[in-house]
């Protein structure tokens, strides 16, 4: 209990005021947890507020058009989270009569809800005595207790869950879980934590053995794949353009983009030859390369090299969209930014 008492005392003095901490509503807590996966609090907070404003209940989210959900998610990345969010909202609304399951075991049946998210909802909404183990918790426990096991393995994850379970007080599991995650986010940070003000300084094994910077241990590395995208922004005499939806199982699934040429090299493509081959009946007036140096857009496992081309046509485009309409459609953030910086007010 010494660990949990020190931890919660620190938390009560240092905690941030965040809207999902002021409620027991499982819908709001679930929404916050999905948004904050792979996302910093500062970035995720405006999205949480926007989603709650647009969809105040799980029924509102369930009945929303997918394009509207994806547009609201635009910029958060990991777009499968948004699709799972929408699917789970439908499941809760229509199969569970709008009531979220009240335990982690049943919550795991929801799409996009893994062990961490299920434990978080069950703990924060229903006070289930179950540890919530995320990256912050791994870091705090690894340093405080000097654990050198590789956290990328399932065996180590179970080791940390067991340790956290042995520390969690049965009368206040939600408080403990919030406290240890907040401690990792604010005090026991990944880089250069200020150990001089840490309440665990004297008993922290990593601090005593000068291993703070090397813990936790994560040995596996995700191989990064390079991809080369050339986007074709067709602009006709009416100021309209063409877009398409990414429907294949790949990055940005269900989001929209401009016609795309994907190549295997950073070398500048022969755009005239490509256009003649792909669009033989298109009357082209002018071609403009918007960026000679590719825009680098990094994903968790891919590095995209992106160029944008403006292709002015002499005749009107079929199946076209106005520039104004693009503002209501969900694009990957790199394309959204290009539209705002290069096409608006054309």
Automatic annotation (TrEMBL):
Its EC number is 3.2.2.31. It catalyses: Hydrolyzes free adenine bases from 7,8-dihydro-8-oxoguanine:adenine mismatched double-stranded DNA, leaving an apurinic site. Keywords: 4Fe-4S, DNA damage, DNA repair, Glycosidase, Hydrolase, Iron, Iron-sulfur, Metal-binding. Residues 35-186 form the HhH-GPD domain. The keyword Cytoplasm does not apply. GO terms for molecular function: 4 iron, 4 sulfur cluster binding; 8-oxo-7,8-dihydroguanine DNA N-glycosylase activity; adenine/guanine mispair binding; metal ion binding; oxidized purine DNA binding; purine-specific mismatch base pair DNA N-glycosylase activity. Its cofactor is [4Fe-4S] cluster. InterPro entries: A/G_AdeGlyc_MutY, DNA_glycosylase, HhH-GPD_domain, HhH_base_excis_C, HhH_motif, MIG/MutY, MutY_C, NUDIX_hydrolase-like_dom_sf. GO terms for biological process: base-excision repair; mismatch repair. Gene3D superfamilies: Helix-hairpin-Helix base-excision DNA repair enzymes (C-terminal), Hypothetical protein, domain 2, Nucleoside Triphosphate Pyrophosphohydrolase. PANTHER family: ADENINE DNA GLYCOSYLASE. This is Adenine DNA glycosylase.
């Amino acid at each position: 209990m010494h660990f949990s008492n020190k931890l919660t005392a620190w938390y009560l003095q240092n905690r941030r005021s965040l809207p999902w901490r002021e409620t027991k509503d499982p819908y709001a807590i679930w929404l916050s947890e999905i948004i904050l996966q792979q996302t910093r609090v500062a970035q995720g907070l405006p999205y949480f507020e926007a989603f709650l404003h647009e969809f105040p209940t799980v029924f509102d989210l369930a009945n929303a058009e997918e394009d509207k959900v994806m547009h609201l998610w635009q910029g958060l990345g990991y777009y499968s989270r948004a699709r799972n969010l929408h699917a789970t909202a439908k499941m809760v609304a229509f199969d569970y009569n709008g009531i979220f399951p009240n335990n982690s075991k049943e919550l795991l049946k929801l799409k996009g809800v893994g062990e961490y998210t299920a434990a978080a909802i069950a703990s924060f909404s229903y006070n289930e005595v179950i540890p919530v183990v995320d990256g912050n918790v791994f870091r705090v426990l690894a340093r405080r207790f000097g654990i050198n096991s590789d956290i990328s393995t399932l065996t180590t994850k179970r080791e940390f869950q067991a340790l956290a379970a042995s520390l969690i007080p049965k009368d206040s599991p939600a408080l403990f879980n919030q406290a240890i995650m907040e401690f990792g986010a604010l005090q026991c940070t990944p880089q250069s934590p200020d150990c001089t003000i840490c309440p665990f300084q004297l008993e922290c094994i990593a601090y005593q053995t000068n291993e703070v910077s090397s813990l936790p241990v994560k040995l596996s590395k995700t191989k990064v794949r390079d991809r080369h995208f050339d986007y074709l922004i067709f602009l006709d005499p009416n100021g309209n353009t063409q877009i398409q939806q990414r429907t294949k199982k790949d990055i940005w699934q269900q989001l929209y983009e401009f016609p795309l040429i994907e190549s295997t090299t950073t070398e500048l493509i022969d755009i005239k030859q490509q256009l003649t081959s792909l669009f033989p009946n298109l009357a082209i007036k002018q071609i403009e390369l918007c960026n000679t140096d590719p825009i680098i857009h990094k994903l968790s496992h891919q590095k995209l090299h992106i160029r944008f081309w403006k292709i002015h046509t002499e005749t009107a485009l079929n199946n076209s969209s106005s520039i104004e309409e693009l503002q209501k459609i969900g694009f990957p953030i790199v394309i959204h930014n290009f539209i705002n910086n290069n096409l608006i007010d054309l």
